[in-house]
Amino acid sequence: ELREAVEEVLTDLERDGVRVFYLSSASPTPGVEALLPAIEAAPDEPLPARHRAGVTADSKAMYIYTSGTTGLPKAAVITELKLMMVASLGQICGLRPDDVVYTTLPLYHSAGLLVGVGGGVTVPMLCPPGATCVLRAKFSASQFWADCRRYNVSVIQYVGELMRYLCNTPKHADDREHRVRMALGNGMRAEVWKEFLQRFGPVAVWEFYGATEGNAGFINYTG
Description:
Order of helices and strands: HEEHEEHHEHEHEHEHEE
Number of strands: 10
Shape: globular
Strand content: 15-25%
Number of domains: 2
Distance between the termini: 39 Å
Helix content: 25-40%
CATH architecture of the largest domain: 3-Layer(aba) Sandwich
Strand order of the largest sheet: 6-5-7-8-9-10
Radius of gyration: 19 Å
Number of helices: 8
CATH topology of the largest domain: Rossmann fold
């Protein structure tokens, strides 16, 4: 869905030495590589330490574009330290190596990428072999719980409106037939929170607040 935007500035990116990839098996754009074949062909062995010899806590890990308080979207710098701090949120809330995390949020934002996928990646550092992430290309309220049952999901991610959409779906006899024990996200209204628990069962809700470009955040750690 970002193809046209990438192609519009591709010449400038190439001039600046920026490499662009599609996470797919083939590329529809000349000059842009398909990354999936390279990933599938990569060996399972850890990368040599020399590849990260110069990496420090202050090194730039990635840029995440935010909507920006004023003007156009802006690239927020995510350092290695911030990446680890945000990704550890799941462990703080009790994410376990045997958990299956279901993420329907976009991976170009912090919640889906750093908290969801990142949280599963960081768990092995303390408790091998690590959590499992189930990714869905687009959120579907009607298929949400069917997916949770199909993939034995135990942890879900949300933004406030996502939970409201789930509560607005027709009620079913199997609404509580799932393994979800924890929900991690932000922006859920109090009335939706109550309705969600009453309908779908005693799921531990960890509500947090943070900003990609911010320097602080908080979470209802005590419930």
